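Reopening: Zn-dependent protease still failing for me.
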Amino acid sequence: MDFFAQQARVRGSSRRLVALFVLAVIAIVAAIDTVVWFAMGHHPVDGEPARSNLSLLFTSSVVVLGGIGFSSLFRIMSLSGGGKAVAESVGAVPVPPDTRDPQLRQLRNVIEEVAIAAGVPVPDIYLMEEEPGINAFAAGYSASDAAVCVTRGCLDNLSRDELQGVIAHEFSHVLNGDMRLNIRLMGLLFGILVLAIVGRKVIWFGGGRSSRRDGGGGQVWMIGLALIVVGYIGYFFARLIQAAVARSRESLADASAVQFTRQTDGIAGALKKIAILSEGSELQVANKQEVAHMLFGEAGTFNALFATHPPLLQRIRALEPGFREEDLARLAASLQQDAEMPPAGPATSKPRSPLGVPGVAVPPPLSGVLAGAVLAQQGADGGATASTRFQRAATVHQAMPATLTIAVQQPESALAVVLALAMSAQAELQASQRRIVADAFGDDLQQAVQAIAVEVAALAPESRLPLAALAFPTLKQLSAGRQQTLQSALDALVRADGRVDLDEYCLARLLRVQLIEAQQPRRTPMDGLKKLPACRDSVMLVCAVVAANGSADETAARRAWLLAMQQAFPGETLEWSAPPAAWQTPFERALDDLDGLMPPAKELVIQSLASAIHADGVVSVEEAELLRVICASLHCPLPA
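Support: Ran it again with your exact input. Result attached.
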């Protein structure tokens, strides 16, 4: 499967379907205008029928468009609470950071490791406790605002690899901008449906006896009936288009999940178990249609017209082309036979089998028929590297001291950990840095920072930003004012010695970008429209900063930069220029410029940066941290 080609195809399909939404609204306006013209404007007025009709039609069009627009905006604003609000609306409960439940602990570990490996903030984690089906969804306007919610059926029936595949699928929705698109489509659907609701009110109030007495009841009744008919017809077709948009985005999320994990076993195994289990992916919650387009699987009974996902067999075959329907029957029989076998030895707990039968442990993940072929198609950043990336993320996560992972679970102690990460190792600077912390947050927090600073200083360099990522969900709970104070304090801490070291800059920049987006998620930019040549100077500067910070001397830096330029602008002759001493401000302006690139152009920028990083055959911690910050600023995941 060519996943990058699949991404391009689905994005183009989504744009066409959204254009159909616009055409549907235009058709609705035209239909209402036609009825209004026959009901009220067909007869001449003062001998000027054309002018009267044009004015009437203009007024009618403005009223209908305004009604749809304001109703849609109202609905979108009602969903502005972000991923957390959406999860709570379906009865999901947050998974505590300090949970001792083995299944919930595994869920947190998987989500945190996928976040660390992909270079995105750790999302809020929710569980739908009473849902036995296998399903999940991610909601939010951006990665910084995301919440990932899974059902109890996921925990009871999926292996760790399968759970990882489902989580990677949900991360893809956030990174691909699907949540923002879905919220806007939901708003437009509501705006169209409001026409029918207004039509009923018009008939009830405007077409009643009082209107009939003055002879206008028939005209008003006709307009009200038209609003009802056109509103419901428009809603019907809008639902069809929404379902088609959702299906195309689900195909993209499946492809992106394999890009994250570089193996088809996990997500394909989860889809097979949905097909086998009697509960499937169905949800019991009453308002399941609210989130149906966000889910990993269908929320209820499959309906070809309004299905928000491609058929299960189609999704499985896209991952494993040789898979056949009869394979599901054999797999179900095999798993049922395993479930009926007694446990091999004494068990202290009763895990559930893939078929929901207590007493049998979850089996290994299902193997993908074409997994090797899929990995071979990924090129230089192929499956072995991606698999290693997830292993490294798990290793870094598990190697963190328990005292620190516990500390980041509470807002005040998480604040102390992040401030300690910005403290200098030089004793002569620590006194002035402690004063900065005390002035910003008080003596109590300053003492907490001092107490934990020794353990933070002993942390492995590659664990610094992942630890900050683990602290992020807790830091979001701080008030807006306290978050602003944190950003100011971090800037002051890293500049205490009159210069900004790379690791200090990466920490401050990463948290600033993510906290600002978490406060104002709806302002997070969507995919840009710029092409790479329009941002040539920004690409040159960013690559120069990466090359200079990852090379032993200027000659090596120039060589690494030239490799990046050959990747980004093949055939062009460009002159190397070392980044200025005070590179941070122009670097940030360049990142903001690059964030407006089209997705394929961003991909080329990341590939160019990877070429510069690999020029000397070594990936240093500094290079990895800088690349993590660049990817966060460009709203794209880390490359494998």
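The mean pLDDT is 79. If you still see a failure, please send the error message rather than a screenshot.
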